[in-house]
Design goal:
- By secondary structure, this protein is of the alpha/beta class.
- The chain has one domain: Rossmann fold, CATH 3.40.50.
- Helix content is about 40%, strand content about 20%.
- It has seven helices and nine strands; from the N terminus they run E-H-E-E-E-H-E-E-H-E-H-E-H-H-E-H.
- The strands form two sheets. The chain has a five-stranded parallel beta sheet, sandwiched between helices. Strands 4-3-6-5 form a four-stranded mixed beta sheet.
- A hairpin with a 2-residue loop joins strand 5 and strand 6.
- Its EC number is 2.7.4.8.
- InterPro entries: GK/Ca_channel_bsu (IPR008145), Guanylate_kin-like_dom (IPR008144), Guanylate_kinase (IPR017665), Guanylate_kinase_CS (IPR020590), P-loop_NTPase (IPR027417).
């Protein structure tokens, strides 16, 4: 039985972890099972790729617009990667939470750390691989990265894995079905009406 959405309190759930750990797959499965949950859309200064639409894939901004948003504190977190800015717009997240919705935010570790400062009530969940060896297999299994890119991702993952204890919860994605059910339990325990 679905929880009563009018009495449940809204919440921000931050999912983070190294590249290749399965964050995107878990988010996709969560939204299939709970279509009433809201996936936060990031803002970026990079150009749209084929098929991407403003406001659906990303909010596409100029660098000047993005810098204005930073100055006006319109972002919960932001970072610069490969010459482009990426960040989480504050207003849509706060609007959904005010309506009692669960908001999912899938971001990198650096951004997830910032969220602790800008949105202290967020529940931050770190997704872990069963081992570094399994993570390497997953990255190679994608077939989309060069050896150099895989080596960089693995080096980055080693650093990020050391940060797992900083987060509210740690969840090992060793079995997708089990990890999904554990994740749903973690999210729903924080979305119960308050007496």
């Amino acid at each position: 039985m679905a929880p009563d959405q009018t009495s449940a309190k809204g919440q921000l759930i931050v999912l983070t972890g190294p590249s290749g750990v399965g964050k995107g797959t878990l988010v996709q499965l969560l939204l299939e099972r709970h279509p009433h949950w809201f996936l936060s859309i990031s803002a970026t200064t990079r150009s749209p790729r084929a098929g991407e639409e403003d406001g659906q894939s990303y909010y596409f901004l100029s660098k000047e617009e993005f810098q204005t948003w930073i100055g006006e504190e319109k972002l919960l977190e932001w970072a610069e990667y490969a010459g482009n800015y990426y960040g989480t717009p504050r207003q849509p997240v706060e609007a959904q939470i005010a309506q009692g919705k669960t908001v999912l935010l899938e971001i990198e570790v650096l951004g997830a750390r910032q969220i602790k400062q800008t949105f202290p009530s967020a529940r931050r969940i770190f997704i872990l691989p069963p081992s570094v060896e399994v993570l390497e297999e997953r990255l190679r299994g994608r077939g989309s990265d060069s050896e150099t890119a895989i080596a960089k991702r693995l080096a980055q993952a080693q650093q990020e894995l050391q940060a797992a204890a900083e987060f509210d919860h740690q969840l090992v994605n060793d079995d997708l079905d089990r990890a999904l059910h554990c994740l749903i339990d973690l999210i729903e325990e924080g979305n119960q009406p308050q007496d």
